[in-house]
Amino acid sequence: YGHFAGKPKWQKRLITYRITQYTPDLTQSQVDATIAQAFQLYSDVIPLDFKQVSSGTADIMILFKGGYHGDFYPFDGAGGVLAHANSPGQNQGGDTHFDDDETWTLTQRGVNLLLVAAHEFGHALGLDHSRDRRALMFPTYKYVNTNGYRLPDDDRRGVQALYGSRTPVPTTPKPKPPPGPEPEDPTEDPNPDPLPNPRDEQCSRELVFDAATSIRGDLFFFKNGYYWRKSTTFQGIRLIKVNTKWPRIQYVDAAFEVPNKDAVYLFEGSQYWGIRAYAKTIISGYPKSITSLGLPSSVSKVDAAVYVPSTKKTLFFVNNQYWSYDEGRNQMDLGYPRSITQDFPAIGSKVDAAFENIGYLYFSSGPRQSEYYLPYKRVVRVLLNYGWLNC
Amino acid sequence: APTIAPTISPEEEDLAEGYLTQFYSDVGMKNSSTRTIKENTFSQDLQAMQAFFGLEVTGVLNNETVEVMKAPRCGVSDISR
Question: Which of A4, A14, A338, B49 lies deepest, with the highest CB count within 10 Å?
């Protein structure tokens, strides 16, 4: 990796950016989400945060335009130079320009915006070009699969050399599991990983989920800080550690998707995170306290949550009670909490995980799962959790 | 003996000059229309570019080097300023 002469860098933690001209190749929200995702590749590894502003002068001004575009470095039409950016500093420092004579996409067609934006933001943060062909900061463009894309090592080391590395945000520690038998060897760590990898439980009839949700058609089943992803496109089930996808989230107690908001919410102890369903990036301003939803401060964690598209309500399950939240009015409905058994007979008195899938609600209680058809207000089938994991 | 057709066309030589001016000249990102570069600078800059991309450093323009110059890329210079 390389730095610019004099190693210019930002001297503050919160960097603002503003997109003043968009490309017609993508919707504005796609551009916003992709630019945010590109910045998040850096905020995941260095202690800087990035905030989009929509007026005034931001630290990093961003535009899409072909040919002459206001500086002394006109673009050259399709191909050739795709974009450029200035090193950190006042005024034009950090400003980033994309050649709108290119065809900007979110795929391998044309020019992938995430990859180029992430490269240019490397410059805007103080990285020069790298000679490592595998590095994002290598000068020439080469498409790579951007699913789950993270900064390559060379770039991560280069940007951490300037800003240090982001230490994981201390989250409220998960209540310690009841102490197990004393380890035979006192020097041996009784539990190297605070929560054991659930790989061996995938096909166990006793499998209990921590949380479950849909995300854009795929199903995510959370357990011990990992999740199984049941995809509509990929074959097989993948087991992924939560904090490799969202480094600031260690485990998930509850999760739900609100498709018409393109958002997924992941609950961790007494806080929750908003995530863009499309880009899978954390929405700025999160995490928030669960009390901001209207839950009482006596609630220290949410057991399960599910959004019901037909009523536009989100149900929050805590111990043997539940709340109803109106996603249209963004507030809790009156008259809650209510008893789970009173309104959802036969699903059990406590819900560990809940999700919606093609019109049915699935409530997990222990290893059992009730398939519930809301219009009839009754359980249609009883399944076992592991049945979703292609066993 | 038939004269061997030059492997590098005049257009590609122009492309190379513009490329080196923009990404390997000694100051910042240069606007190629405002600068012509002398032969020795051309060879030196070409060697710097070939070294950066891990090509054989000959200081002479060849097809492999031209291919790299044609690849879509970032507009920021490759030499630290």
Answer: B49
> Is A156 in a helix, a strand, or coil?
helix
Pinpoint the alpha helices (H) of chain A. 28-43, 113-125, 153-163, 242-245, 340-343
Q: What proportions of chain B, in percent to the nearest 5, are helix, strand and coil?
A: 50, 0, 50
Task: Give yes or no for residue A297 having a pLDDT over 70.
Answer: yes
> Position B48: which residue type?
A
Q: What is the pLDDT of residues A141-154, one digit of tens each?
A: 999 999 888 999 99
Please check whether residue A210 is in contact with residue A253, taking contact to mean a CB–CB distance below 8 angstroms.
yes
Mean pLDDT across A108-117: 96
Give the whole-angstrom CA distance, residue B67 versus residue B48.
Answer: 16
Task: Establish if A8 touches chain B: CB-CB under 8 angstroms.
Answer: no
Q: Which amino acid is at A373?
A: Y
* Cβ contact, residue pair B31, A72, below 8 Å: yes
Q: Which of B28, B75, B56 is nearest to A139 (CA)?
A: B75
* One-letter amino acid of A233: T
Residues 55-84 of A with CB under 8 A from B: 72-75, 79-84
Write the CB contacts of A218 (distance below 8 Å, at least 6 apart in sequence). A229, A230, A231, A232, A233
Which residue, A281, A218, A219, is CA-closest to A249? A281
DSSP, res A376:
G
On the CB side of A134, CA atoms within 13 Å amount to: 6
- In this complex, is the C-beta atom of A376 within 8 Å of any C-beta atom belonging to chain B? no
pLDDT higher than 70, residue A191: no
Task: State whether ipTM is beyond 0.90.
Answer: no
Q: In sequence order, what are the residues at sequence separation of 6 or more whose Cβ sits closer than 8 angstroms to the Cβ of residue A89?
A: A8
Residues of chain B contacting residue A85, judged by C-beta atoms under 8 Å apart: 76
CA A54: distance to chain centroid?
23
Residue B17 reports pLDDT greater than 50: yes
Name the strand (E) or helix (H) holding B20: helix B10-24
Q: Is the pLDDT of residue A173 over 90?
A: no
Q: Computed over its alpha carbons, how large is the radius of gyration of chain B? A: 13
Q: Which of A8-17, A302-311, A359-368, A375-384 is the least confident region?
A: A375-384
